[in-house]
């Protein structure tokens, strides 16, 4: 057998796939193999698998590439006579000619099952015609519908005459075999296939003049339905039935286009209208729109089931696009004209258009009701009354004769339009419902530790690490054995994982595990030499795999230039030190209330514990604790500090919590003072801190205060690489020599080299800045605010940023407002939805400068990097009519925005002006800004804007 393996290796490496070599080398070798029993032949399979790949080594780097086509052909033929169905993975390299020769020598029992395996891409390299020939020869007993549907679409494509030539098509090949049109063609309507691809290729060939006529499947089916090769009625019915199957969007779109291309007559449409109306349940809009357009041809004819259509069309109002709704409106108008008894039914059904935040659709519905409705009908009046809150003001006024209400009802409605009062008391930051509970006993702690890698909130990880410090002295060897699963998971993450923050957590946990193995000699097994095992793993990594194990003190993120993890690493090293030395003093920075706040009185108590013990907290721990201190109950906290603290701790707390207190020496922990100043008043650069060794970077960088730098004008509208900011500080090398590396903000470089996976740790970073997140927000705007085609991780990063700002209580300053404004114009709908919710909450809580946000939105739109339609659509979906108070604030926002747009109208301005006019009518307001009125006067000269701009001026 070893000689046979050696011969197999020698022959496969030297083989050239030519007819001569096939007859003189390959087939004789196959015949020799067939003389051996299957058990012996199967011993060649490992050798075949090894020979499939060519391994190269370069300076310690190894790589594997698939072998040549010649070798693959030889190995595939050998594999064919040695393996079972599951092991046959080289079938694609066996063509029809070679397969016939092999089958004449050996026919495996699994052949039919292998060919019918529609899920495998490794099947033989044969066409539909060759497959049928194998059936004629008797090698295949039965072909599955799935396999036929996969192979039939490519049947009409002809091989090009030259290697790089274009493919021609011949649909007459479908007529070659009777079974093709009698049975096989119908499988295309039942199974997933590549029909769309080949159909488009054939049409493209016709457009280029490669084929004299359209040889696509859709054109061929139309011809065959006319000349009698196919039953036309069956073809139409089968096409309609395809919409009820779970095909993908492109397949459904092809069937819809096919139905149009078949050009059904009015008689055929009337006979198929039941099947056509069933398509209304489709989740895709294209087939629904096609059916509506076809039914429009017969709506006035006798035999049209208008009552059934009216009932079935009801479901279309919720999900159909505007063009479909306009078609339904047109159909209803013809039904009401031809069948007067349906007028009221049509009116009531069309009332659903009032739910659409599109004034033109609402006007269509109102015009229909005015034309065909009965103002005396109580049923219609009641229906309109229920839709009244959703109507535009002009629409409501036009239907005044149909909407009747008593003086009492009118008073109630009038009262509901009055502005809502702002909450009399601000929502507290630290409440009982968001208090974070630490584990109450050892069992709770062990359970919490086991969930370390599955925790969804950043504060859970913080409290778990704090709990390790508290509970470690109580743990014994039995407890360690219960912790082994989480330690093993940490090992697997470090060895094989890719997520940066998860790797840092795992490295910390392995550092904690090392404390156990060094202090307890009874520990054996897998965890005894974890670090040595990880070093061995690193030796097997390729040259381009930057992942490697480092102890916590030396840890750095792989594939990333981010430095934002350095303070976190230093903080966790402090936790390891505490555990090692038996220091049970708590970390100062562990949050007391979600999402990341520390109650001011609790911070004072923790500092008092350190002061009493004569211990010095880590500077990173103290900085983070100050950054997380909740800005409430300040007087109580200052009073408590005066009783419990002295010297620097007392002065630091008084400066942080008392608005009127200025810095007072001693300044032993200088970084803590700088952070306290940034939290207290980021706009002020305190004179006392100028000489600090840690205060080396510009104050505006530490505080997140930056001026806009507009990108250079782009030639294309809405460029794909448009960014809002180009802040010089991000050129990190410029500040490298000035960086003291003593402050959290100095390490705040967040983006990875490849911008992948950053969203996984964004919440963690935000939890370090709950009071002043501006420096972090600035970098998010720079790195991820892309108005073209943003990456998925960029979308998640911005979504996470908006979510965290929504959970914080701090006012939104310039960079946060820039993030909010950009997000309201962002390409992703989820991002825009979060931004809208942030605006609603921020306006209610008084956290947002509405006028400044309007200015920012106008400035972005003037830069021509995002379409206005995104913002207008989002207003209609989630910001409009939230409450009377929000309507007034929305009016203010739009007034500021519109007043700062250029005189030349931006695309989509008309719809926003219509919305603004509606808000003026609802709020009973008028335009008072003279500059805005002048801009409106200029817009009246535009034919598209004249009507709405004039209406706004008249209201004012």
Report on the structure:
The protein is mainly α and 956 residues long. 55% of the residues lie in helices and 2% in strands. It is built from 47 helices and 4 strands. The chain has a two-stranded antiparallel sheet. It has a two-stranded antiparallel sheet with strand order 3-4. Strand 1 (53-58) and strand 2 form a beta hairpin. Helix 13 packs parallel to helix 15 (266-278), helix 14 packs parallel to helix 16 and helix 45 (909-923) packs parallel to helix 47. The longest helix has 20 residues, at 477-496. The protein is flat.
Q: Care to give the gist of this entry?
A:
By secondary structure, the protein is an all-alpha fold. The protein is 55% helix and 2% strand. The protein starts with a helix and ends with a helix.
- Largest β sheet strand count, sense and barrel closure: 2 strands, antiparallel
Structural class computed from helices and strand pairing: mainly alpha
Strand arrangement within the widest β-sheet reads 1-2
Low-confidence stretches: 58-62, 406-415
What proportion of the residues is helical, as a percent range? 55-70%
Number of helices: 47
Proportion of residues in extended strands: under 5%
Question: What general outline do the C-alpha atoms trace?
Answer: flat
What's the total number of strands?
4
Mean pLDDT: 87
Please state the CA-atom Rg, rounded to the nearest Å.
Answer: 37 Å
End-to-end Cα distance: 98 Å
